[in-house]
Amino acid sequence: MAEPPSGARRLWAVIEHPRTNVALALVLTGIGIYSPHTVALILWGLALLLALRSAYEWEPIRSRIPIEVEVRRRRQIVKPLPVVVEGGWLDYELAMMAALSTIIQLLDRVTRETGKNTNRTVRHAQQVVAAKDAPVARRHRVATKAARDFERYASRLDRFEQDYREATHQASENYVNLVETAPTGTPWPVISDGLSRLVESTKSASSSTRAQRQSATDLRQARVSQALNQAMDHQVAALTKIIEDMDAFAFSCEQVISQIARRFPAERATS
């Protein structure tokens, strides 16, 4: 670290000098005489500390003090980093079940959101039909109101997609780890059948999402207004990501089923 400039060193030497401390103590004592009682006590206390410091720093006085004051710093003990070891099959099974529970909750949430959006779409379509002979300003307001609702729905789809992608990634990863580490006697036929049902439900959800994306695409192609076009683009993009996540998860589950069949053919044969 570079030394401070000579001017700074000289200033610091003046500040640390015992006489400077004495002068400051006298100034604080004088101010305290004309200050309120509480403030005076504080100032006189500071003055006393400065005077004591000055006396201790003055060599003729310090040499007469029989007690040597030494400040020692406690040596910092550096703790070693904990050793990270691999997980076990119970860890993977627990994490897998937690991820599957999250996936079920997310699908239930998006199903409710989709139902609400369908009702909103019908309501906005009725409003557009009712306003077809109205002035253009009113028709534009109707379209803008619909765009705001669709934009909020697209934002909720974005949040769902992020949560769903993370949950499916955790489930897939822990499924693979479970197959690699599970002990003898694990009920693989039951697990494979559960995975097969999960693949079917995921593909069904993907198909429904594709139909919803097509509806949004059709509305986008109508080119009603700029705000509605932007909301539909957002919605189509969010639905496309969800479809990709669902297809990837279904494929991952199918890979795990194949892995189980290769590693434990006897168990599959008895199912």
Please outline the helices and strands:
Blueprint: H1 6-16, H2 18-33, H3 37-57, H4 59-62, H5 89-130, H6 136-181, H7 188-221, H8 226-263, H9 265-269
Helix pairs in contact: 2-3, 5-6, 6-8, 7-8
Question: Descriptors for this entry?
Answer:
80% helix; 9 helices; 271 residues; flat; mainly alpha
Instruction: Quickly count the domains.
Output: 2
Cα gyration radius (Å): 37 Å
- Main β-sheet: number of strands, strand sense, barrel status? none
Oligomerization:
single chain
Low-confidence stretches: none
Q: Roughly what fraction of the amino acids lie in strands? A: under 5%
Shape: flat
Estimated structural class = mainly alpha
Summarize the structure.
The chain is mostly helical and 271 residues long. The chain is 80% helix and 0% strand. It folds into two domains: 13-59; 89-269.
Task: Report on this structure.
By secondary structure, this protein is mostly helical. It folds into 2 domains: 13-59; 89-269. It has helices at residues 6-16, 18-33, 37-57, 59-62, 89-130, 136-181, 188-221, 226-263, 265-269. α2 packs antiparallel against α3, α5 (89-130) packs antiparallel against α6 and α6 packs parallel to α8 (226-263). The longest helix is centred in the middle third of the chain and has 46 residues, at 136-181. The mean pLDDT is 82.
